[in-house]
Amino acid sequence: MRQSVDKDLVRQHFSRHAVTYDAVTPVQNDMARQLLDVARVRLNCDRVAEILELGCGTGYVTARLPALFPNAAVTAVDISATMVQQAQAQLGDAQQRVRFVVDDAEKMAVGLSRTAPVYDVVISNATVQWFSNPIETLTAYRRCLRADGWLLISTFGPETFAELRDAFVQAEAELGCCRRDYVMPMMSVRHWNAAFSEPPAEAAVVRHDVQRQTYADVRHFLRAVQRAGAANALRGHRRRHISRRLYSTMIRCYQRQHGIQGTSAVSATYETLYIAVGPNTIIS
Q1: Which pLDDT score is estimated for 233?
Q2: What residues does 215 pair with on adjacent strands?
Q3: Which of 154-163, 195-204, 230-239 has the lowest mean pLDDT?
Q4: Residue 272 and residue 35: Cα distance in Å, rounded?
Q5: Please, which pLDDT band fits residue 182 given cuts at 50, 70 and 90?
Q6: Burial label, 239 (beta-carbon count in 10 A; 0-12, 13-18, 19+)
Q7: How many whole angstroms separate alpha carbon 123 and alpha carbon 76?
């Protein structure tokens, strides 16, 4: 799946909300813990010498890598310098084993894929959904791995924010508006497995969860999404104006269809996928 992501907008979103990010991202933090569990089970962690982390953000994963991989040096990349500053503040003494790079991980992939394999692990938590070409980019990073290396990814599936998508569709229908996408598209389990596994190799998606978070009301949910930097970053989206009428109608539709009975609270779905591409996995 290809999509045109406005990387300047991604950088702005996450830089603006770097300080509040950890407080409003319990799902992303849970994804990080699950992803590290995948690494713990599948890898001989003591033998890992070089790790590349894509989209380190505020350093939630980065800070835990030195303990899990006691002999590894870590290169941690993020598109936002402000996020990297937050990550550096988290590390303390472990920072001597981590080198931070401020760059667009997609652009980096082109140059790195032409060099000799240097990494034992490429890991990324809740980041690749911001890539314009996630499959091509991760295939390039796969070539940066040594023969026994692993690509470990967590990301969101297409059911994420299904309620918000549904509320916009209903609101547009009520108002007779042209149909537009206000929620970032996400790749499904089937798409990931088709890209990174072929029989008899193990499926690339090794874990798949669906959870629902509860928020005080629709506006609290939308503010939490905004404070997490997770606004729609498709190219051209910043030029789309959501009218007050559409916005208020969407909120009413969301509350009506996905509200918790007897309260103003609403639920929001998060579909999370965990991808492990190991040395015996065939890349199509």
Answers
A1: 45
A2: 266
A3: 230-239
A4: 11
A5: confident
A6: exposed
A7: 10
Q: For the chain, what percent of residues have pLDDT higher than 70? A: 91
Q: Is the pTM here over 0.90, yes or no?
A: yes
89 token code pair: 């503040």
Tokens at residue 176, please? 């007779």
Q: Is 270 helix (H, G, I), strand (E, B) or coil?
A: strand
Mean pLDDT of the chain: 90
Nearest-5° Cα angle at 91, 87 to 96:
110
Q: Measuring CA to CA, which residue among 183, 141, 182 is closest to residue 271?
A: 183
Residue type, 231: A
For the segment 71-83, the average pLDDT, to the nearest whole number, is 97
Kindly state which CATH superfamily the domain 7-159+185-213+270-277 is placed in: Vaccinia Virus protein VP39 (3.40.50.150)
Average pLDDT over residues 67-87: 96
> pLDDT for 145-176, tens place per residue?
999 999 999 999 999 999 999 999 999 999 99
Q: Say how far residue 75 (Cα) sits from the centre of its chain.
A: 18
- Residue indicated by tokens 């916009």: 168
